[in-house]
Specification:
The complex is a heterodimer of chains A (114) and B (111). By secondary structure, chain A is mainly β. Chain A contains no helices and 11 strands. Helix content of chain A is 0%, strand content 49%. Classes of the chains: A mainly beta (114), B mainly beta (111).
């Protein structure tokens, strides 16, 4: 079990630039989730996929954010025209296809906007 | 929206027991979770409990659930310095796949 893998671990960019993060879930997990965590807060749900279908999106996911999971395996989260308020840890989690199966998290991508 | 509340800080001496408390508002909560986060890292699943249970024990960890009062606690026996971290309580409601987290309790273990 290699766990959930996220890349990069850290990203520093200037305001207005686009960034893309990648998440590789645990291999047999068909559900994949994205959360955002700001300093001193718990993670907040952004979106989730069942296989390649994006089934739910939070109101936190503005139109500058887009997530994909094209082949039902890895996922990407893109932020366009980054703003200072986008600085956060972006966490990916995966689980088996059942609400009773717990979500397992990766180590996250820390985004810093200059 | 639904809410999960935790005290922000807890300090204990090495070898003592730690008890971290959590309250939640979602009456449809089906599963409740405890995650551990060390500095700069992601969340490590510690344990979870189904809402029709009132206790679960796993080695040094004991989870108690009072569904009537919507109160969850995590007891860590024989706390070690390696247990120093932020502990998050989270719940998931019926029919949902979204975890709702508290703000986390920072546990400091004094040698």
């Amino acid at each position: 079990d290699t766990g959930v893998s996220q890349d990069p671990r850290h990203k520093i960019t200037k305001r207005g630039q686009n960034v893309t993060f990648r998440c590789d879930p645990i291999s047999e997990h068909n559900r994949l989730y994205w959360y955002r965590q700001t300093l001193g807060q718990g993670p907040e749900f952004l979106t989730y996929f069942q296989n390649e279908a994006q089934l739910e999106k939070s109101r936190l996911l503005s139109d500058r954010f887009s997530a994909e999971r094209p082949k039902g395996s890895f996922s990407t989260l893109e932020i366009q025209r980054t703003e200072q308020g986008d600085s956060a840890m972006y966490l990916c989690a995966s689980s088996l296809d059942s609400p009773i199966q717990p979500q397992h998290f990766g180590d996250g991508t820390r985004l810093s906007i200059l | 929206g639904e809410d999960v509340e935790q005290s922000l800080f807890l300090s204990v001496r090495e070898g003592d027991s730690s008890v971290i408390n959590c309250t939640y508002t979602d009456s449809s909560s089906t599963y409740l979770y405890w995650y551990k986060q060390e500095p700069g890292a992601g969340l490590q699943l510690l344990t979870y409990i189904f809402s029709n249970m009132d206790m679960k024990q796993d080695q040094r960890l004991t989870v108690l659930l009072n569904k009537k009062d919507k109160h969850l606690s995590l007891r860590i026996a024989d706390t070690q310095t390696g247990d120093s971290a932020i502990y998050f309580c989270a719940e998931i409601g019926a029919g949902s796949y979204q975890l709702t987290f508290g703000k986390g309790t920072k546990l400091s273990v004094i040698p």
